[in-house]
Recover the amino acids of this structure.
């Protein structure tokens, strides 16, 4: 870019008129380079009544060094104010100056943070908006302590709620060494007022040293949307409900119906021509992958899915290939975003409710799950709890915080994926083998030399004069070999040999893992029956 183009800042002016303030993210403070110019920004709010006055003058409405609380003189009296700006101005940012003793930084209005319900993440130095679905969205990004970008939607929501105009302030400067005459330039100055834009641009030179400079100083205003558009209570948008496949017509075409619980039939006579609230809707099991992938946020148990304390829904996860949910529960218990997620996996199937769910939901009978992953988790919990109660020490060491997810992740694979299968084998080994309390097992073994893990467990059982343990120890060793030959290392001939023991050459991997879980659960039952 030539000195002349930089000096007159034509591209910068076009940017201010067409792009600035219209993008998804807006820089509200700090400096950045725009077409070779050093651009500094600030941001705040003004009343709608002040807008005409603001646009008549290019000077900034808010001072970077003011806006905090303090005292002022009013009619001869000393009055304390929470904000020392005029009543028709509201700061968004506060420049914290510690006189060189500590680093300066910019702070964001707490009212803005609280109204948007933003959470500060110290690692990323960003604020996130938290949603009912459990998802989060980056709303504020600290590039550094004095440079902040805010997603425009959150500025506009706040401005709409308070019926204030957003005022984007800028000070953009260029300079280069030399004299105007060196470049065939002359000093200039003008004021530009276009729509919601007002600024002055001036250029000239100064000496010692010789420097050519130009400066744009001004503002851009964004008027607020009606308060009804702010999205905060009571102006939230009306809930929307997805349609789901509930069956097929005589030609086999899928029939869909809304999940809005207010439009469904029930046992009290509402909407008699509509499907029943308790109409089962079916989904492929892959619908759960999203939730298994974030164990820190979601929990899946026997018959239930939840997102922390935000939401929860009863599910029939007692099938091998599908998950069922009642039509009315989909609309009542799932946030809109989650309904859209589930709809992607909605399937037409000949399946019906599981016997477990039928017994629990319609006959009010306590019923154990027929799914091996639920049986395994039930028996593992029972063994861990009762063992420590009886012997005074845990058979399995508690999982660390970093491994807390392991137990919840144990499940039938959601697809025929080698990667998922390998991961689930690793997790099962962590629970059954890696977590064995070898220190306590060793206390009852005379010679522990050369013994580790499964070997110590085997010797401990031998010392208790219990019979029939050999097949269970053997199954644990096969599991460990499968983990070592496949999940923990590059696969080779050893993996092929051991995997055949589990039927990988004859069955889909989900069925293979079910078989492994059945053997693991049989071991847990043996330990319960023999030692508890």
């Amino acid at each position: 870019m030539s000195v002349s183009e930089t000096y007159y800042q034509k591209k910068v002016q076009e940017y201010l008129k067409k792009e600035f303030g219209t993008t998804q993210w807006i820089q509200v403070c700090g400096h950045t380079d725009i077409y070779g110019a050093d651009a500094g920004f600030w941001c705040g709010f003004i009343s709608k009544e002040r807008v005409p006055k603001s646009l008549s003058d290019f000077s900034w409405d808010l001072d970077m060094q003011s806006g905090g609380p303090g005292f002022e003189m009013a009619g001869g009296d000393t009055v304390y104010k929470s904000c020392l700006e005029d009543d028709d101005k509201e700061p968004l940012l506060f420049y914290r100056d510690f006189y060189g003793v500590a680093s300066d930084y910019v702070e964001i209005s707490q009212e803005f943070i609280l109204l948007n319900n933003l959470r500060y993440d110290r690692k990323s130095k960003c604020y996130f908006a938290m949603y009912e679905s459990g998802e989060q969205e980056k709303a504020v990004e600290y590039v550094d302590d004095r440079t902040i970008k805010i997603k425009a939607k959150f500025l506009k929501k706040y401005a709409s709620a308070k019926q204030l105009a957003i005022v984007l302030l800028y000070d953009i400067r260029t300079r280069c060494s030399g004299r105007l005459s060196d470049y065939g330039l002359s000093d200039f100055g003008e004021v530009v007022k276009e729509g919601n834009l007002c600024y002055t641009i001036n250029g000239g030179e100064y000496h010692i040293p010789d420097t050519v400079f130009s400066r744009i100083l001004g503002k851009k205003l964004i008027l607020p949307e009606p308060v009804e558009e702010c999205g905060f209570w009571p102006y939230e948008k009306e809930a929307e409900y997805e349609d789901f496949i509930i069956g097929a017509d005589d030609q086999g075409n899928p029939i869909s119906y809304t999940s809005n619980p207010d439009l469904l039939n029930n046992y009290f006579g509402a909407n008699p021509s509509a499907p029943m609230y308790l109409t089962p809707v079916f989904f492929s099991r892959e619908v759960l992958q999203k939730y298994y992938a974030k164990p820190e946020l979601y929990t899946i148990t026997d018959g239930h899915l939840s997102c922390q304390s935000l939401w929860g829904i009863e599910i029939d996860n007692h099938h091998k290939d599908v998950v069922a949910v009642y039509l009315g529960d989909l609309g009542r218990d799932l946030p809109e975003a989650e309904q859209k997620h589930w709809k992607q996996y909605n399937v037409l199937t000949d399946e019906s409710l599981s016997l477990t769910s039928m017994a629990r939901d319609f006959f009010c009978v306590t019923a154990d799950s027929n799914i091996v992953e639920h049986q395994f988790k039930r028996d593992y919990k029972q063994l861990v709890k009762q063992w420590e109660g009886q012997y005074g020490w845990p058979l399995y060491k508690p999982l660390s915080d970093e491994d807390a997810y392991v137990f919840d992740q144990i499940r039938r694979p959601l697809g025929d994926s080698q990667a998922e299968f390998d991961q689930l084998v690793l997790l099962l080994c962590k629970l059954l083998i890696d977590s064995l309390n070898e220190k306590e097992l060793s206390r009852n073994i005379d010679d522990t030399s050369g013994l580790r893990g499964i070997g110590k467990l085997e010797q401990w059982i031998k010392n208790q004069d219990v019979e029939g343990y050999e097949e269970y120890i053997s199954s644990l060793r096969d599991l460990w070999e499968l983990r070592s030959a496949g999940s923990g290392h590059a696969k080779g001939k050893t993996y092929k040999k051991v995997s055949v023991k589990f039927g990988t050459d004859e069955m889909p991997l989900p069925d293979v893992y079910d078989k492994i879980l059945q053997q693991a659960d049989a071991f847990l039952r043996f330990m319960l029956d023999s030692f508890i």
Notes: The chain has three domains: 3-229, 243-362, 372-531. The longest strand covers residues 164-177.
